[in-house]
Design a protein that fits this description.
By secondary structure, the chain is of the alpha/beta class. It is built from 9 helices and 8 strands. Helix 4 crosses helix 5 (about 105-120). Bound molecules: pyridoxal-5'-phosphate (PLP).
């Protein structure tokens, strides 16, 4: 199948599953936004998804994202940075991405906020949470999340919108459910502790393997790559 038809068929299949999962929790389809993760794929793949009605894209590396944003140059798209952000790239990211999902320290929050203030942008940000204590993974632990959330609410330029998680790689989709549930409970606990609920409306959780389960547990954003664009080349290949 040509690229456009392939991507369009995958997207329509995904939207059908997304609708089904949302309706199982009594929510409508609009309650869950689909972020098409285009990392490692070129502008042609992004354009194929745009042709099929997709408007939100996710990238995990700043420079690759900036190159694609410039190549596609479409003001109607929303670009999400979903991968680890190094402090020295905070300003570039704050200037170009509408959403940053990977705020995981106070230091990074302050760098992104300063960069956004300087660039005159107002990026929406999520705090990336590490509930599993995986040392190989990025993300803030629970006490740090509370401190980052309080600081983000007071920030000048960034707009705190919620929480994000990348759980341990699941054997089956169900293995992710406890992590998704705990992220939702953490969100509720932060609100109970006084973080305004209007700053915690989003839960970014669920990927190709487990997005149905994530939606059942309250995801408002799912980040899906493989199920739309196919397999990525292995890292380092
Ligand atoms: C690559 C990536 C995804 C998408 O993963 P798929 O399994 O291809 O759907 C989602 N979230 C993050 C943070 C990623 O790096």
């Amino acid at each position: 199948m040509p690229l456009d038809a392939d991507v369009a068929a995958n997207l329509s299949d995904l939207r059908r599953r997304l609708r089904a999962a949302a309706s199982r929790t009594g929510r409508d389809e609009g309650a869950v936004r689909l972020i098409a993760v285009s990392k490692t794929f070129g502008p042609d793949h992004v354009r194929a998804a745009i042709a099929a009605g997709q408007r939100e894209f996710g990238e995990n590396r700043v420079q690759e994202g900036l190159d694609k944003i410039a190549a596609i140059s479409d003001p109607d798209l929303a670009w999400h940075l979903i991968g680890h952000l190094q402090s020295n790239k905070a300003k570039k990211a704050a200037a170009a991405f509408q959403w940053i999902h990977s705020i995981d320290s106070l230091e990074l929050l302050r760098k992104v906020d300063a960069g956004a203030a300087e660039a005159g942008t107002r990026p929406k940000v999520l705090i990336q949470v590490d509930l599993a204590g995986e040392t190989t993974k990025f993300g803030a632990d629970q006490p740090a999340v509370a401190a980052i959330a309080r600081a983000a609410v007071e920030a000048r330029a960034v707009d705190l919108r919620g929480l994000m998680i990348v759980p341990p790689i699941p054997d089956v989709a169900e293995s992710s459910r406890p992590w998704f549930r705990r992220l939702r409970e953490l969100r509720d606990a932060l609100i109970a502790d006084g973080v305004p609920a209007t700053h915690l409306t989003e839960l970014s959780m669920g990927m190709s393997q487990d997005f149905d389960v994530a939606i059942e547990e309250g995801a408002t954003m799912v980040r899906v790559g493989t199920a739309i664009f196919g397999r990525r080349p292995p890292a380092g290949a």
